């Protein structure tokens, strides 16, 4: 999906919500465990109930890999279901990959070609030749970790090299790489005030902002510093939405939670 198509969907649905499919077999309603593929059943119900309130889904690959072959099958069924039933939805493989060039190329093929995701999260630590194999793909986005939502972000990302913080160096340098127009950046909602500085470097790029909901980030603050005239934000919430209830009407309750976030987003978009 192109950036333009994503932006059109955002204005159409008045939402820049990304729902994280961090589907944990230990947290889904127990009655689903008797089903053939409990993880897919859960995802399908969540997607059917919430798709009109969001523009993107982000399965976190760890939750699927942890289950071995059955987890990978559930992931594949989930992405195929999205492609066939809701092709307008933008998909993010939260895989946080990145390796020497020929290995990155294989990761890119796995997530873009085989699974058909629109985008993937990538760690910048190994530099240009580890990221460019992802950027080679047309109409696919590479979402580079810039300033993450966790406490450990302060261990390295905000440390200065020369006269600027590492996360700024990552963003600035990545803009010189081949096909850098395919880049988006991860910035944690828990560090919303940093968005003011980040927007000076990347006034237009889309940012994936996780950390509202369970991690306590504020949507209002994120919008204050991060929204652009073309929106430029995908705000992710996982646990707060998908585990809003563990009763039999869990999908309905998740939809109500997603709708309330979408309503706040519609208010923010109305201010543009
Ligand atoms: O790349 C990510 O999506 C990510 C980056 C980051 O800085 N912080 C962060 O929480 N995430 C992911 O975003 C999701 C947040 O989940 P919740 O805290 O449950 O909303 C998880 O899948 C995290 O792995």
Describe this structure in words.
This protein is an alpha/beta fold and 272 residues long. It has a single domain, classed as Aldolase class I (TIM Barrel). It is 44% helix and 17% strand. It has helices at residues 3-13, 38-50, 61-65, 69-85, 101-114, 128-135, 153-156, 166-174, 195-201, 219-226, 239-242, 250-270; strands spanning 17-21, 56-59, 90-97, 119-122, 141-147, 160-161, 164-165, 183-187, 207-210, 233-237. β4, α6 (128-135) and β5 (141-147) form a beta-alpha-beta unit. It is globular, with a radius of gyration of 18 Å. The relative contact order is 0.15.
Q: For this structure, what is the CATH class?
A: Alpha Beta
Roughly how much helix do the residues carry, as a percent range? Answer: 40-55%
Q: What radius of gyration results from the CA coordinates?
A: 18 Å
**Uncertain regions: pLDDT < 50 for 5+ in a row?**
none
| Proportion in β-strands | 15-25%
Please name the CATH architecture.
Answer: Alpha-Beta Barrel
Instruction: Give the neighbour order of strands across the main sheet.
Output: 1-2-3-4-5-8-9-10
SS-based structural class? Answer: alpha/beta
Quick structural gist:
Helix content is 44%, strand content 17%.
Descriptive labels:
272 residues, alpha/beta, TIM Barrel, eight-stranded parallel barrel, two-stranded antiparallel sheet, 12 helices, 10 strands, binds orotidine-5'-monophosphate
